[in-house]
Design goal:
Helix 1 packs antiparallel against helix 2 and helix 3 runs antiparallel to helix 4. It contains four helices and no strands. It is mostly helical.
């Protein structure tokens, strides 16, 4: 990967999201009534490739680097808050903090909106 700056950490976090998605799927399969864990696992598994794709589009010069990093960063933040809250609620029976899941949901939506901008705003020449 020739990416620099935040690209490598974002890629690592995307892969961590995939790993945690698989782990939560396995845990949810063994815990009766763990629908929140299933939801968290699905969100992690759906968004991990999206984060990697944003990094790849940027590295290929098909999206503005800064905008792609913002989109990927918002997706990572959203996953931490949303999936973190669902997981903490399942295992510890209390929220991560008040409004963590909705805040994470809005961050995820903002990440997807930034992804739309990556698709419609052309990359700068020579960037």
């Amino acid at each position: 990967m020739r990416g620099t700056g935040f690209d490598r950490p974002l890629a690592a976090l995307a892969c961590l999201a995939g790993l945690l998605g698989v782990a939560l799927s396995a845990a949810a399969a063994h815990i009766p009534g763990a629908d929140s864990l299933k939801t968290a696992a699905q969100f992690l598994l759906f968004h991990a490739p999206a984060i990697l794709a944003l990094i790849g589009l940027s590295a290929a010069g098909l999206a503005r680097t800064g905008l792609a990093r913002i989109a990927a960063g918002l997706l990572v933040l959203g996953l931490i808050l949303f999936c973190g809250d669902l997981s903490v609620r399942t295992w510890l029976q209390h929220p991560l903090f008040p409004m963590a899941a909705p805040t994470g949901g809005f961050a995820l939506m903002a990440g997807w909106l930034a992804g739309i901008l990556c698709a419609v705003i052309p990359a700068r020449r020579g960037a």
